[in-house]
């Protein structure tokens, strides 16, 4: 059975107040079902609970109410079936690129020969050939995020969670990384949840774009992207793309205004 | 003027470091040889070197040095063997921390030297007592510092390990320990320095061998040259062990320097 179907059922998250202040409603009850192999991007203003939602799916945080099901099983703790690429750089600084990518495989006790073959193949896929023995400190930000993506993928998770993985990169590098990730996804077909601030990035990769409202976060729009795969970067200049972009820009702008006036 | 935090060339660094030693000895020589300080209170550098040479060639001081080094290394190793695993457990598991932390924090302030009379009562004047002084002086410090270091491990690295399928033990073995290994080595280097002060105190009281014993003997002979020589030997050994520790850390943790 092909797996990777995710179901988020009325999940909400309230953080207790800091210094006796009012509690923060980070996420309103949110319901969402994701089919296997969907590439979902999530757009929303800063602080609307995107990271919170992803962390709950990963099992790193618990919802205040509701539950998350992956292939029908309830998520209670983090596990290898949900790979995550974080907003911050989280490579293990004491392991080189090769060892970082091998981390999950080692943890599962995959035999050495098989493990090395898998790691080598991902080193190639993310274009880090020649850098296997480098420490994370010796890599650029883009290379670190590529390693982090390879590290998550090498573990063969059912669902991949990416939290603004390209947020700190310049535009050119960011475009290349999008093509790289999209290429890998088109070949390997995984369920992906991808958080971003960038509307073009969201449309370019997604089969479905979710727009979240300003805090307290909830899903405000759910828009299918019918551009055919495999996608080439030139798709960004087509009229269909521009129309989607115009529509999403409107949706986001309303929320950004709300978020800004709230403070 | 150099800019804040701007690095300097290696040769310049060594030169500056050596020049302060030279300046220090020069001032000392000026004060003593120039007759500003009486010989009874402070020997001059030349007498100190002569006395030191006598100590080494005629009075078997090398054996004292060996004795002291072995006591420090022995007591310190025992302390590290107990303290590092306990510190890691305390840092990793909050109930363990809650159980031990208050007592260790209290015990840390008990002066090791004040235990010497008690330890002599319990363990006699032998080696066990010397090792125990160093053990007591070091173990609580190491436990606490290691626990703090491990407890402050970057949470995002721990979370990354969990999402890669690591279990709780895997997180301890493959994240908490390697992430903090350089810091733990650094803590050991620091506490080893303190262990040196405990051993000398232990040897000042009821000992028939060791650098501290030589110093107390020299005091009754008013041989300040010998005392200063003993102190300088301790400083030198400290400097060497520090240097070795740093070199070892560089070799063991190349990722730190990259
Ligand atoms: N551990 C926490 N304790 C208290 N409040 C928190 C905690 N984590 C998040 N929050 C609050 O929850 C809200 C949503 O945070 P979250 O990190 O999910 O936002 P985000 O959408 O990822 O924002 P950004 O795009 O800036 O990363 C914020 O208002 C934040 O202050
Ligand atoms: Mg975020």
Automatic annotation (TrEMBL), chain A:
Keywords: ATP-binding, Nucleotide-binding, Transport. Residues 6-239 form the ABC transporter domain. CDD domains: ABC_NrtD_SsuB_transporters. GO terms for molecular function: ATP binding; ATP hydrolysis activity. It comes from the Bacteria. Gene3D superfamilies: P-loop containing nucleotide triphosphate hydrolases. Belongs to the ABC transporter superfamily. This is ABC transporter ATP-binding protein. It comes from Alsobacter metallidurans.
UniProtKB/TrEMBL annotation, chain B:
The chain crosses the membrane at residues 20-42, 68-93, 105-125, 132-152, 187-206, 227-248. Residues 65-245 form the ABC transmembrane type-1 domain. CDD domains: TM_PBP2 (cd06261). GO terms for biological process: alkanesulfonate transmembrane transport. InterPro entries: MetI-like, MetI-like_sf. Keywords: Cell membrane, Membrane, Transmembrane, Transmembrane helix, Transport. GO terms for cellular component: plasma membrane. It is found in: Cell membrane. It is a multi-pass membrane protein. Belongs to the binding-protein-dependent transport system permease family. Probably part of an ABC transporter complex. Probably responsible for the translocation of the substrate across the membrane. This is ABC transporter permease.
